[in-house]
## 1
Amino acid sequence: MPNPSGSRTLALAGLLLLVGTSSARAGRSHYGWLYGTEVNPERGVELETWILQENGKGDDEVGREDETLVWWGPVFSLSEKLELAVPIEFAYKREGDESGTNLERYGGELRYRFNSPDPMLAGPVTVLVRGGAKRFAQVRSAGRGEADLVVAFERGRFHAEVDAGTVAEWVPGEDTVEFRPGAGFSIETVSRLRVGAEVYAELGVTGETKDWLAVGPTVSLTRGRYWLTGTLPIGVFGIDSAPRVNFAIAF
Amino acid sequence: MSRSGTIAALTAAAALLAVCPRPLRAEEERGTVRGTVAVTRPKGLAADRVVVYLVGFEEPAPARTVKIVQRGKRFIPSVVAITVGQAVGFPNRDPFLHNVFSPTPLRPFDLGSFPEGETRERPFSQPGVIDVFCNIHPEMSATILVLPNRRFAVLEREGPFEIRGVPPGTWSIYAYSRRARRPAEAKVVVTAGTAAEVSLSLEERAVQPAHRNKYGEKYREPVDFYR
């Protein structure tokens, strides 16, 4: 038989859980450069924005460049596991004495989560695949394909993830293929504020590319229909730094 | 959820979680628990469902999925009792979208928005009290009691009840109402082949005030364009 004091203790603990719990998680990622494995509920819409910088990419021999890219687009939940993103990308680039801001690319991305989105049914390991097809705005005959395999592990407040990405660009005379691996971990502290770290790299497979790798801390926050992630990786090689902020609002 | 409703829900959940159930022996004969639930409520408040349940032993869940239908911007029925391991389905019988969700820490879920004719289901694997709402229509609310066994009675209002097939033993019996500050509790001794009598009293305080949507925000003014 539950004793009154034990019931009150459990009731108080349960009340604290209710007070401290935030609400819906939207389709967030805990990381800056790594894709997340969460998707929005069916028929949900999320407006995502990424702002990323690649500072001092390259070396003195190849030439160093700075780039700021803004990715913006709605993300539509087609089912409880499948999302469609329709982004446009703007970029500022500076290499040597040349610089400019342009509409870079536009296209579509599909993200499919294999596990149930229900947190009670999903299990500790979640897998998501992502594929994107984009056109370059400046070069009509150029295109880009993107693919990612993301595997996440979550237990209690701890979250870890590995992201294996590939980007292939078909630009006349400048075809390239890059492997883009990343890994990170994140720990929930208070009120849906998470801290962690991530490592990310862009490594050329074919064509002329500027390889780089960076590692740094990551912070993410969820509040109701909003989520925000920021990271400041410092270059290990090939780049000075690669700060990035992602944020979104869900409807 | 109102403070009184929260306390009632948590007390019911604590009662379900704090007891160490014992496994049943298949050859045991069973008994019956009969009784009456009396409810006092403020004048003018309509009657609501009452669930009477026993705690202290476990039984496997039936395979049947319980349905909570969405019709006329209401969950029908608004209070259901199921056994741990059972699933609840939410068919939409309205000519517009509904978005069923639960903010309950024990079993949070968000079924997304789905149209008329479609159903979404979720299993419930832990005992407790689960509040369910619609993210589009604030007037919709339901409560699911997830119980450790199949020995419960759901009453449309206060009155007599009978629970058959109860294993012999001394068990805690509760009467739950969404509007009561806490469930009514009693002890009942069941012997094989006999009927134990028990009376329970509930005091309903108030109708629950408006809850928040799945983002923790107040609902916007009602609109009719979710079709």
## 2
Amino acid sequence: MTATRWLLAYLAAVVAVTFIHEAWLLAALLAAALAAGGAGRWRIARRAVLAVLTFNLTVSLGYAAVSLWQGRFSAAYLLLVNLRVVLLVYLGFWFVARVNLLDACRFSPTLSFVVTLAAGQIEAFSRALRDFRLAFASRNAAAPALAARARHAAAQAGHLLDKSVCMAAETALAMRSRGCFDDHAGLPPPQAPPAACKKP
Amino acid sequence: MHIPDGFLSPQTYLPAYAAAGVAWAWAARGLRRTLDEETVPRLAAMTALAYGLGLVMVPIPGGTSGHALGVAMLALLFGVRLAFLAYSLVLLLQSLLFGAGGITALAVNALAMGLAGSAAAVLTFRGLRRLNETAAVALAAWASVVLPGLLVALALGVQPLIAHKEDGTPLFFPFGLSITLPAVLLPHFFIGAGEAVLTVLVWRFARARRWCSPLPLAGEGPGEEGS
């Protein structure tokens, strides 16, 4: 199966899951997805649980508090919504672990280009911001003041802006040098080489 | 602010995808018509920038901090269309690679934060720029956080009304508008203030670098391309 078909299958599965309102069926689907997940299933499951933990815990505890106070608590609801969220996020991580996202975007060359370039630049930006934070921490023995933190945030954002503007121009030049653009578009067809250049 | 997967009903996210599809086509068509071969690398760079700005911690009085949204910065400097597309791509990458947001919530998140946020920023800026430019930038950034917050609160708060069992038990997000509106909006008033300070500082930096030349005053610059 091609990466694009995997993408379509993943999207269809996601939509189907949101139409299921039976906790036992979602639990069975989660078990099936885990069983099919291969050797990395527990790593993916752990990532999925950690990714949703904060939001789901907040919503679940909030719901428990409010519904108990109003006398309308439903454990079935908590089970349903948490199973659904974990299953959806697990499917997403499983899809990304199994399928190359860039291959899946091949149906659109422009989208493929943009995602490829953006993913690489995101890595560069993440590293730059990590360096900024480490440098800021190393320069402040005590907790920095609000104004200092604001200036630090602005310096980071300014650096990212600076870098992204330069990167856009550099990437365009790099793509041109590798023949990504059709330089002859809109131009008259190339003329035949002069007779002096022809081989005898 | 991102709505995660699993809390929006299909009655919400499927129409949202239809609306977002129209908006994405509008934004892409406008960009393609007005930009040249730098469109793709510029969109990629802005996507990475939008992602990076989301990693910048905005200081909030009291010693805490929140993530910057950065959509006002993008919209004021590069226009609504580019900001919307770049932010949508960020949401796609975040949902697939990091589990933040979610594929079912992508359209609602993109419409709220990418489109409404950037449009609110540009319209506020244009409306107030003649009075005081710094105040206009600050209020534009504040609006770009608060309006998406309002839309996200509305999208979440209507879930118990449109998706519930016969006995009234919710099927998706459990809290109604009376809870989601204050719970989402009140913190965003403060996050918006932090975002406003950050945006003003970066705006001055961008002006010093003369990046503000294509900025829209009225009917000019990237924000108005093709519209």
## 3
Amino acid sequence: MFLWIAALALHLSLVLATCLQDLFATLGGEQSALSASSKLALKFASRASSHFLGQSFSNANPIRQTITTYTNITGIEAGYSFFAPVVSGPNKLVFELHYPDGRIEYDVPAVGSAATGYRISTLLDHLAAVHYVRLREALLQSLVEASHREHPQAVLIRAVFGVADLVSATEYRAGKRTSYRPLYVYDFQFGGESRHPDR
Amino acid sequence: MNKAASLQRFLFVTDSGRWLDILRLGLGLQVILFAWSLRPDWQSLFGQERGGQVSRLLIEAVLSGNSSLTPRLGWLINAVQFTGLSDTAILWIIWSALFCSGGLLLVGLWPRFVSIASWLLYLATVKSGVLFSYGVDNFTITGLFYLMIAPVSRSPWLAGKQSNTSLRTRERLGFHRRILQLHLCIVYFFAGFSKCFASGWWNGDNIWGALTRPPFNVLTPEFLLHFESLFVLLGTFVCLVETGYPIFIWPRKTRGLWLLLIIVMHLGIGLTMGLYLFAWIMITLNLSAFGAELFPGEGWILDRPRLFRPHIVAPSGRG
């Protein structure tokens, strides 16, 4: 019985640590309305939660690997502060397809069902958060290659990745509509030449 | 000593196990719907031969950077590649196994084996597409994990053929239900608490934002503007219902109301934002954790011996 209680305590401690880390990151973020000193305190608190989750160790550290694997297989690796503090604008990826005859067409990642559409939307949100440039390029290249398989005649595909500025109800009533700001533009060339991204 | 005894009574309260049947039925349908919803894009999401949207190998490499021990589709594919089957064929076998595991969860056959298989297949699928996954996957994995580690519950169809459930098993059933209950309290408290700090939830801006943000914009902005005056009310409702969940879900007097409010909230999210799978998993987890006693008739799911019927999971003195 003692073992069961100890296991429960450990499990819920990890759930709590993940939630606290997420909460501190959310409230300490740029979009939070808290004061600068409160945000600094939250930053320290977030770091303490990260320590508890083993994230201060190197990736290969067995303690970190064990904790991360456990949180992954139990589905508790992410916090629950959905849409807090604000609903951020969605991201959008548009492909500009250039053909040898100078024709230009536009395309977006194609999916077969609405359920996959939600998942692609999640992927784009992840893509916006990726700070490792090589990884972002590799992910974009993969999406571009999928588009090229659908349009094999295209010699250049320009991937434009942008984020939307959502409008409030009042702004919408006044006639303002959601607009997209480009964040990254990558060119991928096809047709014998090596594909290379240009930012 | 008294506190320790109270804690023990609270954690190891005897339970009929009906909650586990609700969890299994709900998760069975969830796994089926998940597999079915991904069927048109299964190969484009995870296939390598014809090339997917995003390379599975790339995503699994990202996963390895985070955790090298988390199960993934690549492991399952490598394990059966000696048969000479193609990547595409193996992926379809995995899809079929996932779909069938959901069906077997519903039917209740071989509950232990099937719950482990469902958890493993779902986990491997989600982790091989970790950049595609969102909240619904985490909650489903958590639900499947609890189902897997809980004492084997009897199948609704086979219940009549089995009887004597030991006291120890009933206590363990209660203990595992407590884990789910406490977990949900943490989930809702933090979900609500983080929203309370944002003015957007109190003035209704975030309700508008959530309902108009692609791809959740099921309803048109023009239609939503007719209900603009309700946004403040809805935002406040979400903050209060979520933050108040750990307080009001335990006492018997408020449990039914709070369960109803939280289910209404999830139905609303499902219908107005198109997040049907998310709504279903949350309703399943809530009904399983706190609503098992609300279903009329003990024989509805399990035909249990009369001795077990009065035992309800609730903290002593509060429920």
## 4
Amino acid sequence: MRMGLFCVLFMLLSACGGGGSSSAEVPAPVATPPPTSSPPTTTPTPTPTPPPTDPVPAGISESEGHRFLIQSTMGVDHDDVAALQTLGYEQWIDEQLQLPASSQLAYLTSLPEPANNFQGQADRIDAWFRYAVQGDDQLRQRVAFALSELMVVSDSSALFNTPAGLADYYDVLAAQAFGDFRMLMEVVTLHPAMGVYLSMLGNEKPDASRNIRPDENYAREFMQLFTLGLVALNMDGSVKTDDLGEPIPTYNQQIIEGFAHVYTGWSFGGSTNFNRPSRDFTVPMEAFPEFHDTAPKTLLNGIVLPAGQTPEQDLAGALDNIFSHSNVAPFVSRHLIQKLVTANPSPAYIGRVALVFSDDGNGQRGNLGAVVKAILLDTEARTLAGDSGGKLVEPILRLVQLWRAYNASAVSGRFFFPSPEQAFAQAPLRSPSVFNFFSPAYAPPGEISDQGLVSPEMQITNETTIASTHNYLAVAVFLQNSSAADLRDDTITIDITSDLALADDRDALIDSVAMRLLGRAPSASLRIQIDELLNRIPANDADFRVAEVIHAIVTSTEFARQP
Amino acid sequence: MQRREFLALSASTVAGAMMPLRAFSADAGLSGYKCLVNIFLLGGNDAFNLIVPSSNAEYNIYATSRQNLAVPQADLLAINPNHPDGASYGFHPAATALQNLFEAGDLAVMANVGPLIEPTTKDAYLSQSVALPPQLFSHNDQQDQWYTLKGKSPLSTGWAGRIADLLQDSTQAQQLALNTSLFGTTLFQAGDTSVPYTVGVGGANTYGALDAGAILGASRRAAFEAYLDRGFTNLHARALTEVHQRSLGTADKVNAALALVPQLTTPFPDSNLGRQLNTIARLIAVKDEFAMSRQIFFAAAGGFDTHDDQNQVQPNLIQDLSDSLGAFNAALVEISQSDSVVTFTQSDFGRTLTSNGDGTDHGWGSHQIVTGSAVLGRNIYGTMPTLEIGGADDATGGRIIPTTSVDQYAATLARWFGVAESDLAQVAPNLGNFAGQNLGFLG
């Protein structure tokens, strides 16, 4: 009967979706080659270090260091705080910028061939958790995750059939996370996973006799969601308005059509011809000039690409045209700030970061390493946020934070957790659509909306998901800790041994767990809650007492938000 | 550590005695029970391939525009509208259940509806002499238009949310929110003062660690609720707290009620949409447990953004919609609520008449479907557009200008639901710009 408990629990969790996708809903399999041993298509780009934008405080307290690592890593291993205190913020960032990217594809190819695509995607999720929890390149992983929610592809689509293609796509994001944004635009555009997801791959020049026009999907979403946004922005992210006070659109339908004509003539790399695709998802797409439109194309700011250019020339011209648009700096800067630091950055903060995007101090535009550094070193990031500041932790990162705080691992060495979206309404590269799991502009009705503020993660936080998240965190703490019974080889287990010695010393135990998970003492209110529970557990029941305290803290609202 | 019952893991805890419920006492203004069910087709449904002209002249125009994406004329499922417009029409061959509902008089087609601020002609569109909803052809912006009807205003409530606000006084006896979503948080149901509720297809999620069946569960729950009640100074923490409180406060009651109808005999498609509608039918079946007199449900299906492989993808999308609607209407008969529930579709936009080779792009106007015994069905309402590229209804590029606004569509549904005539403009702010404020499909 006790064995059954575990299974029943998972049945319960898997029955409780959050409106997210279910693997049963993916399209029928399409023949796809198995993962290849090809290396990722790009390698990390070392980034020159610009001067700091703000002075770094002389001494970093334990709490301050912990808070910095909440913003800059996938989750805080509190033991890392001491090293950060020694290095200082800037040098810590510089060291992170130099670390090579972990490769999901390399990991996938080291695993046994998956029996099917569900297993293949489970392996890919395993790779993501592996590097999120155990990777040294923590800042890179955090930025890559942020980019994966900007330039979205998802396995809730035909891409379900290519775990390797998605792993390679994520590798590209990780490799470019501190590189040149213009290069990121290009590798994303030419990645076959994106090509399939937003149907640029196979897009043909017009054929008026058959009423065929180029597909506008990539042209539209690349500008709307990945780079520019719909309305013209000032450098501080505020909206430019016309004489009537109405927002000025960034582009119109004609410009979308111009870009749609640019993105014609591309198919899988290594294809024998346009209509016999190689279906190799791990090499960049390749142009087939006879399927490319050669008429002139009107782009942003009145720029016209001349007739007769090659597909590559048109693409370069189009990406340069977008990259030079004044929206890119505030648009991308705000996205990264919202993902790393705060849901509601001040215009001045966006403006300071956007300036670094425009010029890293060495004349380079779009240096993401410099942008990330500016975001983390900014006064607004380093000052403890007020009552409307900070942000909610993305739901899946709450789990990663627990796992990093308590050094989670499985005997098998794997992170077998194939459907995290069922508990957290989120999983890497598994958004329900190109619009990501939630909108950066989402404001829950009530005081947040009334004040003109946003809380994006609240869009996937509802009565259903909040309970499933609570439930999985309870499982991860009570049933999957190092003292628990019936652990399996693939149970991802948190190591609570070091807290056991403190179990009979109430205050020491609470302070230790809180420091690990929050980087500070719990609120008085949370301490009351924990006291009430510890009063009911015998002082010699160490396992129970430790798990109870961890559970109370990871399910608290103070753990669910970044201060 | 011994395995102990740290967590109670099933909904069995709800099997106990149900909480006493307040007596039902409807306000004088609202009699009986009425329910609206919105099925949102995410991505932009290509309804020009769902309801297709079948008479030769009109079909030929359609086929010339649609080329390789045209549904073969011989495959169309014939329908016989009570008030034909001169042409004849048929449903897509995957929509047999819709054909049956139509012929039985329980389905109306609302032709060529879409977001508008004022009546819009092609000349006015081309000369930019008419106010238009911002960011036409953009998914999220046009979804928001369907949800909010905001036009160019900064309105941040949905029209179902505003209906709930308006009816708050007359639905005070209700023990569940008027608005319930089976598909997560939706702007459609966001109110100014009313607060919607979200439930899963498997019922309400309960907190296993806080369950009375778990060791320390009851204490844990009491301690956690007291923690939430003590409140927070941080805005984001307060937002989270409200959701926790609604979830904890409602889940057991909802599951206890659902346990009264563990299963309907009507089979539903084993699809995401089918499961949502199945749960909605069961919630309607137990409406009296919550003293509900008015309810609006939100369900949704994805995958309609058919830029690619439309000929392969679309039949499955239509089949799912059709079979799910067929099952839902049959289930309403089973639970004797067919007269009180009206189900209607919405979608981001229609799609271009032009092809991109194997799919379609973002359009504007499109047809929608309304079902239920209360519907004056077996009819096509509004005006069928000319499906000619460059024709009178084509804004440009095969994007059809709507001839009926979503404001009119919403107002027609809201009036039937019980919103006072004088309040309709609060539901549909631009309604006053249009003649024909009752489209007639609900009498």
